[in-house]
Specification:
Length: about 170
């Protein structure tokens, strides 16, 4: 493990969520997330899919539901990653297991069905966990949602990621 920090702070319109990245279990995924953080990509994006008792998803759309341009997709590391338990953060993807780019979700409850089983059930790569701010995750998970622009479970009032920053390592 290098000296680079493994802590990221998400300042949202509902409070701060601090995440500790797991670079050993999901090195490609953690590096990908950090690159988006360091580029300021997440600033001004929203949690666009919120399902209480399941997860909160964000990191790819602006408040007007416009998709941001992303880098190339990464390989799915779910096979080696920890379980999708409450408070873990994982990469969102399409049906293609190797399609994750910038979007992520925070598990609102234990979601073992999202774990890797085999090639037919490739799972979602967990690359860290919330260490502070689960109360904020709970608050986001409880917001009123609607269908907008053909998308379901969109918060009525946008939940904005004001900034995502790497927290310097304390020595």
């Amino acid at each position: 493990m290098d000296s680079q920090s493994n802590i990221v702070s998400l300042e949202t319109s509902m409070g701060t969520i601090v995440i500790e990245l797991d670079r050993q279990a999901a090195p490609v995924t953690a590096k990908n997330f950090l690159e988006y953080v360091e580029a300021g990509f997440y600033d001004g994006t929203i949690f666009h899919r919120v399902i209480s008792g399941f997860m909160i998803q964000g990191g790819g759309l602006t408040a007007d539901l416009k998709e941001k341009n992303t880098r190339s997709p990464i390989v799915n590391e779910a096979r080696n990653s920890p379980s999708n338990t409450r408070g873990t953060i994982a990469m969102a993807r399409t049906n293609d297991p190797n399609s994750a780019t910038s979007q992520f979700f925070i598990n609102h409850k234990d979601n073992a069905p999202l774990d890797y089983v085999d090639r037919a059930h490739p799972g979602y790569a967990v690359f860290g966990k919330v260490t502070q701010g689960m109360d904020v995750v709970d608050a986001i998970a409880s917001v009123k949602t609607t269908t907008r622009s053909g998308m379901q479970n969109v918060p009525v009032e946008p939940v904005i990621i004001k900034s995502a920053r790497v927290v310097p390592q304390q020595n």
